[in-house]
Q: What sequence folds into this?
């Protein structure tokens, strides 16, 4: 049992404790799975990029599937929260917050991020029909995402930025599905301008939900 792990990452060049090693493995597993999918991901590449041994990996994760569950909880869920839900939580105008966060993301994401697409959507497409445990885990993240959008539009109704006759749950489903669909589109086309044009039309349609 590795209780005093002292593996050094070759890039960082510093001693890591077990918690740091676990976080590094999750980070590099996320990058590997995002780029190559779950089936195409390589534990050997994850280990090489993390600078740790296979023994260190299995000290923290009992299997590749266990590692993916950690990626969902510790990488994908926090990314959804920070990138998409926190801006909604901090605004009384969900329509404006969605527009701002969308334009910020599309303006700052790299060509590699465009090529790889949305990590949640990728895994849902790859695994939901093949593994029920993964489907349920991924759907919990999707449910939380939709719930965050719904809560933001309910708050927008209370503050007067969203019409009272709007169904926040339906809007949340539409926003989520649109973002997932466009993320799949940009993955194949890698055409930022075309996808952003589609997003702008969608954001204009959301403006019609104002009083």
A:
């Amino acid at each position: 049992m590795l209780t005093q792990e002292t593996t050094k990452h070759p890039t960082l060049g510093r001693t890591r404790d077990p918690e740091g090693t676990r976080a590094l493995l999750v980070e590099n597993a996320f990058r590997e799975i995002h780029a190559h999918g779950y089936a195409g991901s390589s534990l050997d590449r994850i280990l090489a990029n993390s600078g740790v041994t296979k023994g260190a990996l299995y000290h923290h994760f009992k299997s590749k599937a266990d590692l993916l569950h950690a990626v969902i909880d510790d990488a994908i869920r926090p990314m959804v929260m920070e990138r998409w839900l926190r801006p909604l939580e901090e605004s009384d105008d969900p329509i404006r917050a969605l527009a701002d966060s969308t334009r910020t993301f599309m303006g700052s994401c790299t060509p590699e991020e465009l090529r790889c697409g949305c990590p949640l959507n990728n895994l849902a497409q790859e695994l939901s029909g093949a593994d029920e445990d993964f489907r349920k885990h991924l759907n919990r993240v999707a449910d939380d995402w939709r719930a965050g959008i719904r809560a933001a539009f309910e708050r927008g109704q209370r503050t007067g930025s969203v019409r009272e006759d709007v169904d926040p749950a339906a809007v949340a489903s539409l926003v989520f599905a649109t973002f997932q669909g466009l993320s799949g589109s940009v993955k194949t086309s890698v055409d930022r301008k075309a996808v952003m044009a589609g997003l702008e039309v969608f954001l204009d349609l959301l403006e019609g939900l104002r009083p």
